TrEMBL record:
GO MF annotations, alphabetized: 5-methyltetrahydropteroyltriglutamate-homocysteine S-methyltransferase activity
Keywords: Amino-acid biosynthesis, Metal-binding, Methionine biosynthesis, Methyltransferase, Repeat, Transferase, Zinc
Binding of L-homocysteine, residues: I440, G441, S442, E493, D608
HAMAP family assigned: Meth_synth
UniProt: 5-methyltetrahydropteroyltri-L-glutamate binding residues: R15, E16, L17, K18, K115, R524, C525, W570, E614
Binding residue positions for L-methionine: I440, G441, S442, E493, D608
Stated name of the protein: 5-methyltetrahydropteroyltriglutamate--homocysteine methyltransferase
SUPFAM superfamilies reported in the protein's UniProt record: UROD/MetE-like
Gene: metE
Summary of the function given for this chain in its UniProt record: Catalyzes the transfer of a methyl group from 5-methyltetrahydrofolate to homocysteine resulting in methionine formation.
Phylogenetic classification of the source organism: Bacteria, Pseudomonadati, Bacteroidota, Flavobacteriia, Flavobacteriales
């Protein structure tokens, strides 16, 4: 049997890539220094896999920002607005596409960004025009293969498959379907394959996770056409075709008949597909199977006993040389190395495996199946004991929480009255103007603010000293918001590290790592909490600072919370009970916090749910069940307040068309969404559906350092005004401002307020 990986984390054990990229963007290091950091990180990953004994090691799984953006540059798929940037200045072009660029005479917006299938990883969305042409522009895949060769490692280059690349992009004009571009794109793939085969490449991995979706006949034909074309042109090439995140489903017969050497299966998300394959009349025993048996999306220790049974089942019909052992997907979604965690509760730590440990699990599974496995039997016993201890641990179970869940009633997820009645009461209570302005919640987390938190954590600042610093920062932010004329204020969240981690630290049932970072987008890394047990709230979590902020001003201040579905999605969630049950436990804890905020005098409370769309199962037949319990969990969290209390929610970087009815069923009084990168395109779903409640379409892109002009914001607001009732429109940025700097934030928000006031003045003139 062979072992392989589909990809590894690329940020570095200590987020070296994040720090290098941000230093490069700010002009503190040059291109050579950034490139050297990248070279070292790739080298470390390749040598780690070699030292641990991985048989087939991937390359081209590294990225400065995003693998789909890399593919855009590889295929020369560069939107026309970047023509003013010299193509020879590769990194400037690359990062301009990712982040936008405002420099000298150049002012270009970034490309759209959205979630990669059902993960919290964000990718840059390819843009396509009718008759789009492609070319082999970036030679990154060749260079990285050669880098590994120089280390004595012959790798398996990784490419996003052409059908997935096209399907995950967007047509930027009418009159064609993006799959119509396949004939233009395939010659570039051929050129890449030709260059790699000249270097004696044996395997190329093509990632086609679109095969986990319900594909149309046109889409299925595109898959068939692609891989037959590759096989006909390169008969000696060994194609490793990777689908992950779910079963092949209705695409299984199609996949089994493709002329590929190896077919990868995600047996964590869909263990049943192995039986389907072994019993299928279309399965060719000469086709190798890559058994994705180790979870690439979560951090729980593999169950060797269960995994060995699955592998042995495959082995009854397939020769060992035709079996691979692998993770379910790229390990991009897991932290680097559990060995770095020296303060984690030892009882919990024994249940876990990060990327490094997952590689060791894959190697151990292979060796446990060998004839000479005596040296590995102790690993089997240790693994079995750890899993038994976890099941029986007293840390996991809380009878009071289980009782509260069992006693939930339908009324617990219902507001007292329907939205039209609530809206009238809220307008009377809040007295807000048309086009009320606000922000999504967070303000810049400067190096100074982060330094206070670190010193407090290390005991170098007392609680009293830390509180004084945070209080002063909150007051400064309140005064700034008052001065520029925002209508609804926020306290700025200066005391918070991350929108999920902060709450997890205050809830029972969560544990935390020190180095468990994963990439969310670009240089943005998050450290998901480890949700290991029953969830409860021992005491209020946010009331102190929200109540303080409201005491400083007569203008309404929003209480800021993260919703139950997002806390669930952005944590490493226990896998020993249904996710619905865990989500309801979180919802009850948030509900208690919402009620406490209302009782402390806050009239507006925002419960952010940016992850509700990403949790949607990939196959439509599973949507109804998920949406039912996800919407219910949000409503449980939000329904304990009076009609006069206005509930907001926020969602970003998602496609809403397919679930707009469920978003409406959440029944938030106000929803804010990201729309600036798509030029208000994402608003169409709400307009076409006739979304009944109030909505704040984001009018500037906070993931770009550029400051939007007054005219840009006006342009977007007029678009919104043309399709929405004026008394339903809010004016706000796309997302929180935590990652931005104060100078750009202040200028952008001043323009936002000016644009809203101008719109109000026009309304007065019309009257």
């Amino acid at each position: 049997m062979k072992t392989t990986l589909l990809g590894l984390p690329r940020i570095g054990k200590h987020r070296e890539l994040k720090k290098a990229c941000e230093a490069f963007w700010s002009g503190k290091i040059d291109e050579a220094a950034l490139t050297n950091t990248a070279t070292e990180l790739k080298k470390q990953n390749w040598l780690l896999q070699k030292d641990l004994g991985v048989d087939v090691i991937p390359s081209n799984d590294f990225s400065f920002y995003d693998q789909v953006l890399d593919a855009c540059l590889t295929f020369g798929c560069i939107p026309k607005r970047y023509q003013s940037i010299e193509k020879s200045n590769y990194l400037e072009l690359y990062f301009a596409m990712a982040r936008g660029l405002q420099k000298d005479n150049i002012d270009v917006t970034a490309m759209e960004m959205t979630k990669w299938f059902d993960t919290n990883y964000h990718y840059i969305v390819p843009e396509f025009e009718k008759g789009q042409t492609f070319s082999f522009f970036s030679k990154k895949i060749i260079k990285e293969y050669q880098e590994a060769l120089n280390l004595g490692i012959k790798t398996k280059p990784v490419l996003i498959g052409p059908v997935t690349f096209l399907l995950q992009g967007k047509e930027k004009e009418d009159g064609f379907h993006r799959l119509d571009l396949l004939d233009n794109l395939l010659p570039v793939y051929f050129e890449i394959i030709e260059a790699l085969t000249r270097l004696d490449v044996e395997y190329i991995q093509f990632d086609e996770p679109c095969l986990a979706l319900n594909l149309s006949e046109k889409e299925q034909l595109a898959i068939t056409k692609t891989y037959h074309a590759i096989a006909n042109k390169f008969p000696k090439l060994k194609v490793f075709l990777a689908n992950y995140f779910d079963c092949y489903g209705d695409n299984l017969d199609l996949a089994l008949q493709l002329p590929v050497d190896t077919l990868h299966l995600d047996l964590v998300r869909c263990p049943s597909q192995l039986t389907d394959i072994l019993e299928s009349k279309h399965y060719n025993p000469k086709t190798k199977l890559s058994l994705g048996i180790v979870d690439g999306r979560n951090i729980w220790k593999n169950d060797f006993e269960k995994s060995l049974k699955i592998i042995e089942k495959a082995h009854t019909k397939i020769a060992s040389e035709n079996l691979w052992i692998a993770p379910s997907c790229s390990l991009l979604h897991t932290p680097y190395d559990l060995n770095l965690e020296t303060t984690l509760n030892p009882e919990i730590k024994q249940w876990l495996a990060f990327a490094h440990q997952k590689i060791e699990e894959i190697i151990a599974l292979k060796n446990l199946l060998s004839d000479e496995n005596d040296g590995y039997l102790h690993l089997y016993e240790e693994n079995k004991l750890a899993n038994i201890r976890r099941r029986n641990s007293k840390l996991i179970h809380n009878d009071a929480v289980k009782s509260r869940i069992s006693n939930l009633k339908p009324s617990d997820s219902q507001r007292k009255h329907q939205f039209p009645i609530r809206q009238g009461k809220q307008k009377e209570a809040l007295q807000l103007p048309y086009y009320p302005t606000t922000t999504i919640g967070s303000f810049p987390q400067t190096k100074t603010v982060r330094g206070w938190r670190l010193k407090f954590k290390k005991g170098l600042l007392s609680q009293q000293e830390y509180d004084v610093l945070i209080a002063n920062e909150i007051e400064d932010s309140i005064r700034f918001q008052e001065n520029i004329g925002l209508d609804v204020l926020v306290h700025g969240e200066f005391e918070r590290n991350d929108m999920v981690e902060y709450f997890g630290e205050k809830l029972n049932g969560f544990a935390f790592s020190n180095y468990g970072w994963v990439q969310s987008y670009g240089s943005r890394c998050v450290k998901p909490p480890i949700l290991f047990g029953d969830v409860s709230r021992p005491q209020p979590m946010t009331v102190k600072w929200s109540e303080y902020a409201q005491s400083l001003t007569d203008i309404p201040v929003k209480g800021m919370l993260t919703g139950p579905v997002t806390i669930l999605q952005w944590s490493f969630v226990r896998n020993d009970q249904p996710r619905e049950t865990t989500c309801n436990q979180i919802a009850l804890a948030i509900r208690d916090e919402v009620v406490d905020l209302e009782n402390s005098g806050l009239k507006i409370i925002q419960i952010d749910e940016p992850a509700i769309r990403e949790g949607l199962p990939l196959r439509e037949e599973a949507w109804a069940n998920y949406l039912n319990w996800a919407v219910k969990a949000f409503r449980i969290s939000a329904s304990g307040v009076q009609d006069e209390t206005q509930i907001h929610t926020h969602m970003c970087y998602s496609e809403f068309n397919d679930i707009i009815a469920s978003i409406a069923a959440m029944d938030a009084d106000v929803i804010t969404i990201e729309t600036s990168r798509s030029e208000m395109e994402l608003l169409d779903a709400f307009v076409n559906f006739k979304y009944p409640n109030e909505i704040g379409p984001g009018v500037y892109d906070i993931h770009s350092p550029r400051v939007p002009s007054l005219e840009e914001i006006e342009h977007l607001l007029v678009k919104a005004k043309n399709v929405l009732p004026k008394d339903h429109i809010w004016v706000n940025p796309d997302c929180g401002l935590k990652t931005r700097d104060w100078p750009e934030t202040k200028e952008a928000l001043k323009n936002l307020v000016k644009a809203a006031k101008k719109l109000r003045a026009q309304e007065v003139e019309l009257v």
